């Protein structure tokens, strides 16, 4: 069983979530509640699919055993086994869903023990449809719909982090949105006239590098090996002009480039040239994730609404080993449109 991590509970910016008014919901182009319920059910089914498959397989094996031992008709035996497996899997999946303890509404407010830095709304299909076909990405929304709630959330986040020079974004697990948050904050800061560089430290997934549609042979690992020549490995995001130190295609899988003096030297070099250095880290499940994130002035743990288990967040906080909102904070992605972020 996961144990809670005791950290400073002082609210950072007194963020809270409130349900939007009925008028706002009528005026906003959001999906009707049956569609939202169906989407939530689909997410639950996706989470519990391995359980259903496993118990279905067990049921089929029991059906084969029944066929062999009792000489029952094969179709009857397999049908009975499959029915048993699906029923047992459905009940277990339902119990697991009801017992989930994920990031949600109770995570916000001054009484919770997690320092919530802010939250970003779910990027709705309607918002994406309002963009040109080649701009229907989080970055496209940020650049071409600055008044949207999605872009506003990251402007607020960038402003909150403006007093730090080296900021790391990390998720408890893959697909939490850490790369999107890192790129959004970097681009937003560059739009404010700050000198900014984004560094892709996830050498395995290369999410930030792929997000800017780059595929260089060499990148951050080579810059760590030769800090004096770090400019040779730079690239730029085409539309915003953001400087990016990408993850190259080549990598020595036997040794991490981030646990030696070269990485610290590289960060010192970048501090001389940039007002803000944004690190896109591997998940804390990966040892490199914690190593890189601990080197930053401020670490932002990126979580997903109704997806990230509280236990996984606790594990991430333990892996980082840094307490207090001045060092480590939580940002929540994909908050449903029926909630609005407000300041108390």
Topology overview:
Blueprint: E1 15-19, H1 22-27, H2 33-70, H3 74-98, E2 116-121, H4 125-129, H5 138-144, H6 149-160, E3 166-170, H7 178-191, E4 196-200, H8 207-211, H9 220-225, E5 235-236, E6 243-245, H10 261-273, E7 276-280, H11 287-294, E8 298-304, H12 310-320, E9 328-335, E10 339-343
Parallel strand pairs: 2-9, 3-7, 3-8, 4-6, 4-7, 8-9
Antiparallel strand pairs: 1-10, 5-6
Helix pairs in contact: 2-3, 5-7, 6-7
Any overview of this molecule?
- The chain is an alpha/beta fold and 344 residues long.
- The chain has twelve helices and ten strands.
- The protein has helices spanning 22-27, 33-70, 74-98, 125-129, 138-144, 149-160, 178-191, 207-211, 220-225, 261-273, 287-294, 310-320; strands at 15-19, 116-121, 166-170, 196-200, 235-236, 243-245, 276-280, 298-304, 328-335, 339-343.
- The protein has an eight-stranded mixed beta sheet with strand order 2-9-8-3-7-4-6-5, with helices on both faces.
- Strand 5 (235-236) and strand 6 form a beta hairpin.
- Helix 2 (33-70) packs across helix 3 (74-98).
- The longest helix has 38 residues, at 33-70.
- It is globular, with a radius of gyration of 23 Å.
- The two termini are 34 Å apart.
- The model is unreliable at 1-30 (pLDDT under 50).
SSE topology string = EHHHEHHHEHEHHEEHEHEHEE
**Helix fraction by DSSP (H/I, runs of at least 4):** 40-55%
How many β-strand runs?
10
Determine the N-to-C terminus distance.
34 Å
Question: Mean pLDDT across all residues, rounded?
Answer: 82
From the spread of the alpha carbons, the general shape counts as globular
Profile the largest sheet. 8 strands, mixed
Structural class: alpha/beta
Radius of gyration: 23 Å
Largest beta sheet: strand ordering: 2-9-8-3-7-4-6-5
Percent of residues in β-strands: 5-15%
